[in-house]
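Shall we go through a protein fold together, starting from nothing but its sequence? Please make up or recall a protein chain and show it to me in full. Go ahead whenever you are ready, and we will take it from there.
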Amino acid sequence: MPGMKILPVLLLCLPLAAHAEWGQFDHEFGQDKPWTEVAAQLPPYPKAENLVEFNVSSATRNRHFVDTASISVGDDKVVRYSVVIEAAGGARNVSFEGMRCETRERRLYAYGHPDGTWSKARSAGWEPIKMRSLLSYHKALFEDHFCPSGINVQTAGEAVRSLRRGAR
């Protein structure tokens, strides 16, 4: 039977054809598009009633807070937030930042001023999060609140709940 010799060859080709169709499906529905960042919008300046403290480590005397009203998760999967750091000596730093769980990167968008205004950061690109530093608040936010187990929070509400659960 001459047709029987062709059958094994056809059976071997079926998985390849199915794979080609799935590849077409992914291409048509944007699964293989390169990542594009959504333009960040500066939030209102942090208010004391919206600040939730989070733990960085016992190695620092600074206090770290996230403004829960500023948290957002963009279509680009970037978690954006305002952070307030109070030094033991009384100095206060405010910044608006973003975090990419997928690549373990962070970005500074703006600095806060004591008068409640923002200054956009100049040429601030994406930088790796220092995962070995005990003083890295980015590491603490990544591991404990915004990217637990390396998985992106899906909503601002999810991030806020995580911060509140860990509040001192």
Q: What stands out?
A: Confidence is low (pLDDT under 50) at residues 7-28.
